[in-house]
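Protein entry
_____________
===
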Amino acid sequence: MKITEKDIVSGIIDDLKINKLDKINEAYVVSSNKIDYTADIVSDKVKLSHQKLVDEYVSTLNRVAAELDTVNRDDANSEDSAYRSFKLDEVYNLNGAFLHGLFFENITKSSTITVDSLAFLRLERDFGSFNDWQKDFIATAKSARNGWAVTVYNTFLKRYINVVVDLNTNNVPFSSYPIIVIDMWEHAYYSDYLDDKKKYIFAVMKQFDWQKINERFQRAEDVGEVFK
């Protein structure tokens, strides 16, 4: 999942007066890559449904971004306005598209974690032990209500934590960089595992791509340096 084009929000201000905003250009375009789902934790049928879902998220996000270019901002309000609806849809579809991308990227057929890797060292530091992180991550995933379990780096706390995300947008803490992602929507596991969430979670965790995850930890460390 990658951003292929993005126009920064810009405005034309007459006579340098900030209160006279003539134009806001909020459009951007994202594209969905073909899912490289090499792990064997789910059936081919589920893999195909995932691809269709991601394509729909991306298509909707691009349409919403275009709609936001021309939506009436003067009528915006907290009760019933087109602007509010588009802004909510924007975040829902953006998170849905990119969280799926992160999930597919952090699983593979076979991968191992080494005790001297940055991922292992940071999880051990912030959770007490790698095993404690696993237990907490499993509990986080089991707690999700059609949503996600994510290990994030939070710049407020300056440490790694596990977060429960319901749907695509509920309970996402500000200033968090996603590291390890597992899809806990029913579509991700029910066809193959029925209501046995734990079996599905174990299957995914056994095939985490720790090389890819370690790269994310390194980027999170870079992010952390900025907020010191």
